[in-house]
Fold each of these.
Amino acid sequence: MSGYDFDVIQRSWVYLFRDGMTFTLTLTALAMVGGIFFGTLLAMMRLSRFSILSYAAGGYVNLMRSLPLVLVIFWFFFLVPYIGAWAIGAKDPVKVGSFMSCLITFTMFEAAYYCEIMRAGIQSVARGQVWAGYALGLNYWLTMGKIVLPQAFRNMLPVLLTQTVILFQDTSLVYVISATDFLGAAAKVANRDYRLVEMYTFVAVVYFIISFGLSLLVKQLQSRIAIIR
Amino acid sequence: MISIKNISKWYGSFQVLTDCSTEVKKGEVVVVCGPSGSGKSTIIKCVNALEPFQKGEITVDGISVGDPKTDLPKLRSRIGMVFQNFELFPHLSVTENLTLAQIKVLGRTPEAARDKALKLLDRVGLMAHKDKFPGQLSGGQQQRVAIARALSIDPIAMLFDEPTSALDPEMINEVLDVMVQLAQEGMTMMVVTHEMGFAKRVAHRVIFMDAGKIIEDCTKDDFFGTQRSERAQLFLSKILHH
């Protein structure tokens, strides 16, 4: 293969994984946890009988789902410092690192998607289960926390994880704010050594292996966790 | 113990209950029957506020169910309820189904709750299944667990919403036996059912409903005697002759 130099991978993979992949995986994991947490709260709000809560949550979800992710990342990166300053009453914009900015963005963005999954999950639990919880004297939070949500999570786990695989891929969009995720790190090496084809091919292969591997895992899990009915 | 006064309820513009009044005294077993869609399940769900009602008043042990100031979880924790479709929690073991409310609502220790749960399981004859999950049990067994679960919070009254309607015929008796035993021990019970044999054995009173109204509310002897409306006679002739 004359003209190609795949040695560049050999020379740079430690850096790519140590800096880049760590960023990507940490961001994915934390945004997943935060996204599911806030998404579940949003879903509970959307299904609330208090119309203010359900309209507020519905509006938020529709807004987030109607904006391109790249735009939100960009927009937040420039806006979060000012929102932070406003929130704590400081004069100057708060310094927020690019990782923190990405984490907030992805958590808020993914929450809208996880919300819709959790909403379907909550609705998949029979009405009678809620009645049974209430009839035993459990209040709303206990009924949700002990009866509805555990079943909703179990029913929706495959979909939640599939969404996480999408999130894992989407984190590569942080390149727009020059964050050094896996793709960003590879891009830097590629530009420095002028080895674009080699590096981007390598990145594609790594993303494919991880994403496809996770999808296979989800499939396996799906058959294992089904509740006996 | 349970007093229902002039209850009316609408789903939108459709009236499901019209001016229903009755009373269940302490230790009394009242059977509610009637054709499907007559509102009998709705009225029993109104008693522990699982269904709201728009007019009238229901009091349980002197506490008003419809009053917005009433602590509903507390009120419900004093009433046991058994559902047509069992509604056991499928992600919890049989024992956990029985201990959940004891620990989270009544504040019992896990050990005390477990002791109580095992006693109740023994009573309904399901001790051997204590560690299984609901999905591993037959319908009749599940409903017996559900009765034990309702009893786990030491209720002052029990509500049964068609407890045998979802069961295969050969499982109906094992559930009815538990209910008969409960009635004979003096539990206050309000039972929506078509099981007239059960009514004949243990009911003190029978309420017959049709189209959202209470048509008959009389003693068992009167109900199965001759003192009843044409509508009730027709209903009885249909369900007793099969």
Note: Residues 7-46 of chain A form the longest helix (40 residues).
Amino acid sequence: MAYLDISRVGISFTRAGRTSEVLREVDLGVAKGEYVSIIGHSGCGKSTLLNIVAGLLRVSTGAVLLDGREVNSPGPDRAVVFQNHSLLPWLTVRENVALAVDKVFAGRKSSGERRDWIDANLKLVNMTHAADKRPSEISGGMKQRVGIARALAMEPKVLLLDEPFGALDALTRAHLQDQVMEIHARLGNTMIMITHDVDEAVLLSDRIVMMTNGPSATIGEVLEVPLPRPRRRLDLMEDPVYAHARAAVIEFLYARHALPAIAA
Amino acid sequence: MSTTAIKSPIASTRERSDVVRAPIGPIVVKRLRAVAAELVPPIVVLVLLLIVWQILCSRPGAGLPPPTRVIDETWDLIVHPFYDNGGTDKGLFWHISASLQRVALGYSIAAVVGIALGTLVGQSTWAMRGLDPIFQVLRTVPPLAWLPLALAAFRDGQPSAIFVIFITSVWPIIINTAVGIRNIPQDYRNVSAVIRLNGFEFFWKIMIPSAAPYIFTGLRIGIGLSWLAIVAAEMLIGGVGIGFFIWDAWNSSKISEIILALIYVGVIGFILDKLVAMLANVVTRGTSVQ
């Protein structure tokens, strides 16, 4: 069995007496240390799938197993990097990370160890210099780095990234993608990332999971990206493997599973 | 080459010291100008109002005394705020401090109860559906309408006055707290779910700070209302207090004393409002609306 096993997961929401099925029969196994991206058009339920793995939503059918145990509530072993950073604006950068560290490691680490651990994680994302600033005083890219530090500091079994770079400009995004790749290489985390950026998916992932359009969305295809690591974006520009993977994803999204004209 | 290299730092130092020294004068002038821009308009308007008041009330047969006579007649009260002849014959300081004590007690209870109830109503849909209609009706009851009921229940003026303060200021605190709690972004709830904060930690670390700007809006409206209510309540219950002082002065036809008391009431209400605003600013670290 895979490290993270998403098995025949389906979810429906009932609103005002009308039930709509968002996901049906989603089957996916993720190996330890693997980087998996989930890509699909808006409204295909990819964020819903991530929230199920996070435990923020309960499945209607099927189950999610992490390391052999069923997931049915949120927890720090499945830390989430939220799309809009979700830092608490009244806390400093350090306090935001500390809130998670102090809670997750209460009783397991002494206060000194926890402080060192907070520092280490801020250093990992190069945010030591702004540790005492508030979220309103730092840029969007910096906020997202703190969000990543907060999630990594929980030592999650799986790191869940919900369109982590979606709200950033292209240059900042590239910079952060490189940092995430470096962290993944160094720590070997298992990562699941939601994205709708084809290049981002190909550059970062070991496998790309492509979702069909909703309602009742499911996994349409899974693409292996057999590029060696470490990957450098400049070298990949001309790489035939990269180009082929990119073309396959684009073909899936825009030829076979294009959004109907009304929805787009 | 070498000479220029040695010379240039000296030149730059001299330049820098000039730069530092030169603007001290202009900076002071600028500050003074900024302060003057704040202070001059209200002073001018105040002086104009006093002049108009003086002219209007100096005519024979005027109902109210002009400012000069107010100062003349209340001079003893102004310079001796601390005298105490026993009973209710005390200086204005004692009256005001008695009123402030009642407000402090009633308002503190209102703050605690208001934030607690507001949290409940904001957090639980069931509590909101059950309590909100009742709150909406009760909050429109005028403060003084509660007084007879309070007197009947407590059989004493002091707790009744405190109850009136409480019941007047609690509604805006409840309603604003509830709105603040309801507006906590789902993201913050998700974050606390992922790190598994318990209910108590969620309340102190997420709910209260997140809703603080709303809570302080309620607290600020509440302090204004309670100061409004205390004067009216004290007129009816008697004893030491600024409200009773005004009523007593009216009964002895000392109009100048009423005017002096009104000025004190206004200034203290203003200070109370600013104090809560300052507290809000400190607690919410500048994110609350001024």
Note: Chain A touches chain B at residues 54-56, 73-76, 78-80, 82, 84, 86, 88-90, 99-100, 103-104, 134, 154 (CB under 8 Å).
Amino acid sequence: MAMAAARRALLAHLRVPVARPLAAEAAAAGTVPAARRLLSSTTEDTKGSFLDKDEVADRVVSVVKNFQKVEPSKVTHTAHFQKDLGLDSLDTVEVVMAFEEEFGFEIPDNEAEKIDSIKTAVNFIASHPQAK
Amino acid sequence: MAAAAAAPTRAEVLSLFRSFLRTAKQFSDYNIREYTRRRAADAFRENRALADSPAANAAFAEGKKQLEVAKRQAVVYSLYAPKAKNVMELKVQ
């Protein structure tokens, strides 16, 4: 009896170290980083972060280059939509909509009106916290 | 009445055009989404010479009416969204 009790006590004691790392591992791998990720994504969504200006410029240029009516070779970092690229005001509206799609946020009317060149677009998007 | 008779300003027209494009984006069906965008762009180009005339007013009023139609249709079409993507929407491998 004493032997069985001792064995049971021993086994119970031995089982603990096996179970503990598993639980700790699960906690480390699953819940904690998930919670951290959730936390960081909420703060990113609500507060936002500014994009790097060079990256914004490259993406803006590639969006404009993909625009149907634009000659890709004419697109530079300083190009003006109407003077250099030959776009009209309706095209400009379409290009600004394409920026919205690329960067995943909505540009209000009064801001969209001011965007008339690659430079103004880059400046606006780089200073907008919700641009992705 | 005086306000209704005044021709739409440039900003108003561009804002209407932008609303069309935003509404067009809501269609889940590729064909209808692209058609709405294309149709709006074509109609605004067609009427671009109408500056400051009664015809511009009529076109602007018609545009606002059509925008309401498009908005209603976007809701209707959202209830019957296609189950598969259009081949044009697939990314080229």
Note: Confidence is low (pLDDT under 50) at residues 30-38, 41-45 of chain A.
